What we know:
Layout: H1 19-22, E1 28-31, E2 36-42, E3 52-58, E4 73-80, E5 83-87, E6 91-95, E7 100-103, E8 109-112, E9 119-126, H2 130-144, E10 148-149, E11 153-154, H3 157-164, H4 167-171, H5 173-181
Helix pairs in contact: 2-5
Amino acid sequence: MASKIPSDVAPKDVARLPPGIKNNERRRIWTPVAKDWAIFEKYGRETNGAYTEVTVSIAPGGQNAAHWHGSYSETFTAEKGQVGIYSKNVGKIMLSPGESKTVMPGEVHYFFNPGEEDVEMKVLLQPAREGFEKGLYILYGLARDGKSSNGGIPNNLMHTAIILASIGRLLGMEEQLVKRYWD
């Protein structure tokens, strides 16, 4: 089922809208490597760039790779079960439902589920970054295709470069991955 296309989107730009705006069923993505689902509740396009909101469900033993973001904060709020968060500044902490932890730009962090049942959390990125949204679709897609490991890091160094730097854009590989996993 397609969502309503925003009135300010020119027909030529419809192909570049986030997938979940074009089709609500594509708001939910899965990665078998980190063992989590992500559901885009709000894309930055829907909040005028103020934030991106994602609900993440993590299976037992699930964990993403340690990473950091250069230009936005990330707030994790536990909704179901005990959600583990590691940040370089605080170390490992467990969040109970309703509790939050904000990780500031530049702070190394990751999330995990050490329990025996699925856990859920809301993730709020401020301000929104379309690059994050596209990157998550690409990372999860590569994982589903068996092309990543170690917490979701792509096996192909150039795929990693596409996610992290502009080199992939210059070589046209970002466009190929966006067409496969975003469009």
